[in-house]
Amino acid sequence: MWEKRTEASTCFANGQPSERCNCLWLGAGGSGKTWAYTKVLRPLFQRFFGFGRYTAGAPTHAAARLLGAEARTLHKLANISPNSALHRGAIRGQRNKNDALEQQILASLACIVDELSMSAADVYHALGLRFSVKRCENWALDLSRYLQEWFGKMPIGLQLGDFLQLRPAAQANAAELGRLLFKNSMGIVVHFTGTGRFSSCASGQALVAILQHMRQGTAMTDALWAQLQSRVYEVQQLQDLQTAPSRRAFLRAYWGALAWEQVARLQQLRAVLEAEDAGERLYFVQAIDKPTGDATLSSAQVSAALQCLNMTKTGYLIGMCPLFLGMEVRISCILPEPLLTRELPCIVRRIELHPKEPPTPPGAACVVLQYQPLGVLVEVADSDYGQFQVPGDDVPKGHFYVRPVFNKQSAWVFEVAPKQKLRLVRKQVPLAPQRVLTHFGLQGITARSGLVAFLNQPPRMKDGDYGLALYVMLSRATKLSDLWLIGVPERPYFEGFLHERNKTLVDRMSLFERLSVQNEQAAEKYIQKLLWRGNAYVNRTLGVSGTGQAK
Question: How far apart are CA 137 and CA 153, in angstroms?
């Protein structure tokens, strides 16, 4: 692609490419899409493009973090917030920041978008338009053709996803333009069919078989259904696990549910059990909620606000934040420090209590703090952050002070009485238990230590979305024996249900799979033309014998 680079003697890509390449990688969860990017393409981009000359993003912080420390959310890349206008005039009228991210967009030779199914079409459109606007002058673009010239004539585009997984909750009027932009981006389609996430043992292959039946809409055998049923637990059985030998495995596993009403309570329960298991004192930090106007809250209203269960409504700040030394936590909201992104996994190393905090009674296992702590020292549980340090904090590298945040831009609506609502601003330590998540938070995660999955269908969740959520939850673990399932629906939900309730998505995946077969045939012709069949390494990689026959 870069035959006309300025220094032909080097392998460093620069200048105008002779062609553009846009790939769509599709495959079930655990098939190796993200792994192939991070282990193969990302090192290639770093070697031949250089750092800062490729851009990677995903719709959620958790998914973006899996792409590397340099990746950002799609909202960040598009320079928008959840409340931003997404029409073309608003995107074109964005103020030039000329910051490091804009310079990166301008210089990028490749763009990666992961978890495509979760990407809202209107946000996707805003992202593509912003890239085109920023790259317009340097790349000699015709902005009237931005829907045809993907992301500002990006030389290499890579989009990864599975349309039989979760989809975005809401979209604006620009969604149709986003769908058209994606349609025009269609180039090479690759269908990943591997099962790299899952164990090769009998339990791992049983889980693979169950997931395949869900994807294909076929009936499973009675024996396979019995294996799935063997992982179903009643709530009382979970309580028994707290004293059983399997307690440690139970507390190392991820916990997930489909509704905040469950997740919020599980977060508190998990913290209590973990603190007890570690022999550490558990502190509860109470949030401070203030109305944005002149109104005040009564004691009863303050208590009711603290009990709001949905963290998406409260700016991702928990009402009562549980903390203990050694606790595994995650950053729960966006912080001013660019390194401390949402969902970043950390370990609590020190809790700096307020000077006015009363002495803690000796032997107290649990304490509700009277004042919010000055800060919490955390160590980031990610090797990529080992050499980072926030200026001004006298702490070891890879450690950061997390202080209570108070963001007036994140006011949330609280119903103090029927038909009477107030906008509140919350101040709280932006931490939450690390391994208790909704199904959206779990997508993209490999739960190698297991998953306790609460599968009850929330009252407001549509059947189509429930089918997708069931699939996502089951596909997080690496084997069936690592699943503890609660609230499991009847057998048809694991056979034809996902197909019947998501016909459009199923038809779309079938189309992409057919395109992938055509692209694979074309790739085979290139391999023959390049005489790669004579290379022993290529033959081993492609799984063929020395005679060119498939093994």
Answer: 12
The helix/strand/coil state of 369 is coil
Asked whether the predicted pLDDT for residue 359 surpasses 70, the reply is yes
Q: Which amino acid belongs to residue 20? A: R
Give me 460's structure tokens: 């407001």
Closest CA to 353 of 337, 334, 336, 375: 375
Question: Residues with Cβ < 8 Å from 90, sequence gap 6 or more?
Answer: 84
List the one residue out of 506, 449, 503, 438 whose CA is nearest residue 472: 438
Q: How far apart are CA 262 and CA 437, in angstroms?
A: 10
pLDDT band (50, 70, 90) for residue 26:
very high
Amino acid at the residue 314:
T
Q: Read off the pLDDT of each residue in 322-351 and give the average, rounded to a whole number.
A: 91
Instruction: Name the residue among 423, 417, 412 with its Cα closest to residue 293.
Output: 423
Which amino acid, residue 516?
A: S
Provide the pLDDT for residue 550.
43
The amino acid occupying position 48 is F
Supply the mean pLDDT for the chain: 88
Instruction: Pick the range with the lowest mean pLDDT from 171-180, 229-238, 438-447, 466-475.
Output: 171-180
Q: What is the CA radius of gyration of the chain?
A: 25
Q: Given strand 254-257, what is the order of strands in its sheet?
A: 436-438, 254-257, 451-454, 483-486
Is the Cα torsion angle 149, 169, 77, 95 positive or negative in sign? positive
Residue 349 φ/ψ, nearest 5 degrees: -110, -30
H or E element: which one contains 111? strand 110-113
For residue 540, pLDDT over 80 is answered with no
Instruction: Assess contact for 64 and 49: CB atoms under 8 A.
Output: no
pLDDT tens track for 43-67: 999 988 888 899 999 998 888 988 9
Work out whether the CA dihedral 320, 326, 332, 337 comes out positive or negative: positive
Q: In the 3-class helix/strand/coil scheme, how is 497-543 assigned residue by residue?
A: HHHHHCHHHHHHHHHHHHHHHHHHHHHHHHHHHCCHHHCHHHHHHHC
Q: Which residue in this structure is represented by tokens 């050694």?
A: 326
CB atoms within 10 A of CB 334: 21
AA identity, residue 17: P
Map tokens 């203990």 to a residue: 324
Query: What's the token pair of residue 421?
Result: 């609502």
Sign of CA dihedral 405, 435, 237, 490: positive
What values do phi and psi take at 414, rounded to 5?
A: -125, 130
| Token code pair at residue 395 | 């702490």
Q: Is the pLDDT of residue 68 over 80?
A: yes
| The token pair that represents 165 in the structure block | 């997984």
C-alpha 359 chain-centroid distance: 41
Q: How confident is the model at residue 148 (pLDDT cuts 50, 70, 90)?
A: very high
The mean per-residue pLDDT over the stretch 214-230 comes to 95
Q: What are residue 72's DSSP bridge partners?
A: 57
Q: Check: pTM over 0.70? Answer yes or no.
A: yes
> How confident is the model over 231-267, as pLDDT tens digits?
999 888 877 776 767 788 889 999 999 999 999 999 9
Rounded-to-integer distance, Cα 509 and Cα 185, Å: 16
- Return the amino acid letter for 158: L
